[in-house]
Amino acid sequence: MSFHVVIGFGPAGSATARLLAEQGRTVRVVTRSGRSPEPGIEHVALDATDTEGLIDVAQGAAAIHSCAAPPYHHWAGDWPPLASSLCATAEETGAVLVMLGNLYGYGPVDGPMTEELPLAATGTKGRVRAAVWEQARELHEQGRIRAVEVRASDFFGPGVTDGGHLAARVVPPLLRGKSVTTLGDPDAPHSWTYLPDVARTLVEVADQERAWGRAWHVPTQPPLSVREMVGRLCAQAGTGPVAVRGLPSPAVGVAALFSPLLRELKEIRYQFDRPFVVNSSAYESAFAVRSTPVDEQIKETVAWWRERIAAGGGHG
Question: Could you give the CA distance from residue 278 to residue 188 in angstroms, rounded to a whole number?
Answer without folding.
Answer: 13
